[in-house]
Amino acid sequence: MAMKVMLRFTRHILEMPIHWQLWIALLFLANMAAVFFLPRVEASVVLAGLFVGAVLQMALFDRFGFVRLLGIGHFHWFVMIAWLVTRLGTIRGEGLFHNWVVAVIVVCGLSLVIDTVDVIRYLRGEQEPTIVLEA
User: Fold this and answer.
1) Which of 32, 15, 3, 55 is nearest to 108 (CA)?
2) Which residues make Cβ contacts (< 8 Å) with residue 10, sequence separation at least 6?
3) Which of 20, 70, 99, 116 could make an SS bond with 16 (beta carbons 3.0 to 4.6 A apart)?
4) Which of 78, 25, 74 is nearest to 33 (CA)?
């Protein structure tokens, strides 16, 4: 069942305009780059956040479809980003690792802006699916 939901979700993403597909790819790659920094705690937190987001979004998608409410699947990033910001002082001078943490903060932060706007629009009545696929 979970695999079917993931495949349907992916099909919806592939129907989005190319700029949104590129944005989602950038967001995914920035977070997945954490594997190169394991076993650092920051990398583990980012990977856990990515996993939690995927589970939440799949559950929301399965229940509501491809709607603006999916942005809730990233809201736990508010806490993750705040915590990562507090870590910047301890990792200053660590070159690539520091730059990656800053990139995750920026990319996930921008995503949260988009997600928050989407969820507000959903709550204000824009509840129709943003992508509809033929069966």
Assistant:
1) 32
2) none
3) 20
4) 25
Number of Cα atoms under 13 Å in the Cβ half of residue 96: 6
Location of structure tokens 């921008």: 110
Q: What ranges in 65-125 are assigned the alpha helix state H? A: 77-91, 96-123
Which residue carries 């806490």 as its tokens? 79
Per-residue pLDDT tens for 66-104?
A: 999 999 999 999 999 999 999 999 999 999 999 999 999
Q: Give the chain's length.
A: 135
In a domain, 131, yes or no: no
Tell me how many helices (H) and strands (E) the chain has. Answer: 5, 0
Instruction: Answer yes or no: is 129 within a domain.
Output: no
Domain extent for 92: 2-123
pTM of the predicted model, to two decimals?
0.93
CA distance 4 to 51: 17
